[in-house]
Amino acid sequence: MTSEYCHCWRQAYVIRPLSFSTIQHYMACGTSRKKNDPFVRSLDTDFHNWDVPFPAVTICDKNPLDEELLQEYIDKVWPAGAPANATRMLQWLATLSFRSIEESATTFITQHDLVGHTANDAPAPALDPKEAVFSIVQRCEAAFYDCEWKGDSEECCDFLVPVFTEMGFCYAYNSRHAEKSWPWQSQAQSELFTEAYIHETDSKWSFMFNSFRNTSIIDIYIHSTEEMAGLEQSAQLSWDHRVEKVSFSVKHTYTTEDARQLSIRQRRCIFADEVKLETSSIYTYSACMRQCRMQRSRSYCKCVPHFYPKTKGYRQCTVRELECIARYAAAITDVSRCTCELGCSHTVYEVEKLTEIDSSKGPVASNALETEFVSWPMVRYKREVLFGWVDLLVSFGGIAGLFLGFSLLSGVELVYYFTLRACCAAWRDGDALRRERAERLARPKPPYNLSLVPWWKKPPEPQDARPLQVKAKDLQPPKYSPPPLYTQYLP
């Protein structure tokens, strides 16, 4: 592991595909961090009682266009004849990313027959790119068939839903961030997301799909259902149809609730309900980074690219406005400008095995791809506070009890003696206290020997416990007269 991963974990998260070893390295990297780390990490092995969610599988075709739908849309928008590069621009919009914006935006924006001279004469795809993409991409039923979930045959379009990512248009299974509505949505497809789980007794822990696009490269992203495929993650597999099965393992790390007593800076993670995001109801690192890029896009260009979800306060860019995004793409995607931390509950999926087709038994290309757990998850990683406020109180109490004989009960009694007991005594015995004080002030003061002669030379004379009674005639000087009603001598 190189030292570049020790700067911060958001850098480690972006430099390469996020892996569990990268996260663990960040959490423990640096000698000073190890010394000041307030957490202890342990293994949780009670795997029989776990609810294990199946990950989200995001399927991104490098060329998601449907040729027939594309031609129909072009004829509809430009009935008199499509301008040059119309097909290229629509394909560019379907696979839009920050890199493609930076590389190709000026190519299409300078052609007025594609984007218009002004907003009033701009064609439909230039004003609403997202709606244009929906009109030209492959429908689910034309892209996938014969899907299986845990070994049972299922309808693909009941599971795979469209999703716009920072790599373009994709389909996703078991993703919380998929599109809520789309033009070809059926009645059976509900907007309410239901997370898929596996159980130890299931015959298979896998999801399988078949693709009609056997000549296209398809990127496969396996991630948590709360996360979203984006710039923070690279594809686990660029499927060229020579692999028929992807086996992955899961590494789940969670932080106990007692860590809430620490600040975010101390624990270096954020609980799901601790920070409210504009783009997601649950805090995750990818959602935070996505919102950061949206905010920077809005700050620079007053709009965001259409692959971001429609959010209140964020307007989606027209094709002409993507020129501004291209100009500031480097600043928008700069991770050092975003202050995001990983979630306190985080799951990482790592590919353990790729099973290729046995060429000796049949064709060298497969239309089916199965994603499965390599084994039942048996370990979770738990982060607990090593030394909290309660531990600190107990430690101080033990030290005070050992060396001072002091205990928590003694402290309570001390506070009680000077507060509650004093107030109650003043309220209940006020008259007796005032009378006692008056008697004490009226009592004559005893004589004091103020001589400066050392005791070793002349010991002090023994004094009577009773105050010295002196008559007026014995006073010196003889003209001294005591105050009225005061017959006792005061030295």
From TrEMBL:
GO cellular component terms, A-Z: plasma membrane
InterPro entries in the record: ENaC (IPR001873)
Transmembrane spans: 385-408
Region of interest (Disordered), ranges: 464-491
Entry keywords, A to Z: Ion channel, Ion transport, Membrane, Sodium, Sodium channel, Sodium transport, Transmembrane, Transmembrane helix, Transport
Main location: membrane
Protein name: Sodium channel protein Nach
Cellular compartments annotated: Membrane
Annotated organism of origin: Papilio xuthus (Asian swallowtail butterfly)
Similarity comment text for this entry: Belongs to the amiloride-sensitive sodium channel (TC 1.A.6) family.
